[in-house]
């Protein structure tokens, strides 16, 4: 007979009278793991630690801003009666696609400043992005948000899930699809595959790590988004499904362009630190 669990309190503890939420702790952990993955690969590619820190710091800042702006834009009606709630980010309301867009723009701008190859820095950042997303989904779990439609408890038990996950998916007496877990596992498989394949010198060409992310994440998110109950819409269309399809198309197109344009088929994994990072007229 399984143990019964109560829903997890979203507040982990209080510090000087201020509540510290699990959501914030988990996002902090996601940033830390992303930082480690990014700086290690950036160092191997010849980017010094100060530049790596600047790249990641500002990318995280504007990625979070982009995630919030994106969410607010597509759910503006929710904020009309209380505009100040826009700034209460600890209550939830971040959209990963907004974060990706904000982060990508930031990387592009900083690469111009530091005269770095944009596509190489994007490639370096992809494992950190995967890790940040898969860890960050546990913040949604703690907040009991970003879940799917209702299911039976038996359905969740048949998935062989731990009781603490099953009971956290019990919201006001109704059980829901743990879509956070589906996306966590999907991104985890993608990250593991990427880290295993990346060192093979002839497998990925420059720019194909970005393409891999676009295709992999786009496919998974399109399916998972169809299960969710909190999707942002443009008319009858789910915004994230539209963007997922766009990502997949761009990713496939990028692979074809790289493979067919022979002179730019530069292997991603190379020990030549003098040329792989510097801007070469991009």
Describe the overall structure.
- The chain has 282 residues and is mainly alpha-helical.
- It has one domain.
- It has nine helices and seven strands.
- It has a three-stranded antiparallel β-sheet with strand order 3-5-4. It has a two-stranded antiparallel ribbon with strand order 1-2.
- Strand 1 and strand 2 form a beta hairpin.
- The longest helix has 26 residues, at 49-74.
- InterPro entries: Lgt.
- Keywords: Cell membrane, Glycosyltransferase, Lipoprotein, Membrane, Transferase, Transmembrane, Transmembrane helix.
- A 1,2-diacyl-sn-glycero-3-phospho-(1'-sn-glycerol) binds at residue 137.
- It is found in: Cell membrane.
Element layout with pairings:
Layout: E1 11-15, E2 18-21, H1 22-44, H2 49-74, H3 96-114, H4 118-143, E3 150-151, H5 153-158, H6 163-168, E4 170-171, E5 174-176, H7 179-197, H8 208-225, E6 233-234, E7 237-238, H9 239-260
Antiparallel strand pairs: 1-2, 3-5, 4-5, 6-7
Helix pairs in contact: 1-2, 1-4, 2-3, 3-4, 4-7, 4-8, 7-8, 8-9
Summarize the structure.
It is an enzyme of class 2 (transferase). With 282 residues, the chain is mainly alpha-helical. Helix content is 59%, strand content 7%.
């Amino acid at each position: 007979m399984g143990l019964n669990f109560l829903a997890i309190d979203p507040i982990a503890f209080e510090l000087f009278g201020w509540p510290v939420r699990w959501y914030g702790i988990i996002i902090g952990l996601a940033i830390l793991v992303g930082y480690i993955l990014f700086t290690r690969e950036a160092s191997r590619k010849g980017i010094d630690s100060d530049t790596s820190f600047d790249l990641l710091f500002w990318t995280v800042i504007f990625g979070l801003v982009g995630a919030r702006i994106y969410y607010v834009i597509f759910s503006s009606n929710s904020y009309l009666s209380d505009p100040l709630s826009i700034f209460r980010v600890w209550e939830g309301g971040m959209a990963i696609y907004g974060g990706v867009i904000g982060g990508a723009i930031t990387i592009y701008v900083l690469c111009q400043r530091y005269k770095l190859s944009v596509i190489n820095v994007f490639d370096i950042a992809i494992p950190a992005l995967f890790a940040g997303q898969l860890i960050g989904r546990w913040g949604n779990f703690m907040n009991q948000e970003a879940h799917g439609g209702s299911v039976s408890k038996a359905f969740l038990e048949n998935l062989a899930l731990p009781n603490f996950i099953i009971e956290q998916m019990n919201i006001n007496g109704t059980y829901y699809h743990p879509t956070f877990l589906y996306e966590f596992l999907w991104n985890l498989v993608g990250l593991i595959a990427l880290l295993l394949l990346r060192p093979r010198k002839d497998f990925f060409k420059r720019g194909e790590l970005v393409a891999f992310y676009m295709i992999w994440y786009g496919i998974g998110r399109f399916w998972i988004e169809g299960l969710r109950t909190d999707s942002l819409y443009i008319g009858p269309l789910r915004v994230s499904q539209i963007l997922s399809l766009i990502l997949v198309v761009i990713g496939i197109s990028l692979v074809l362009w790289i493979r067919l344009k022979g002179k730019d088929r530069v292997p991603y994994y190379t020990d030549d630190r003098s040329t792989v990072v510097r801007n070469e007229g991009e």
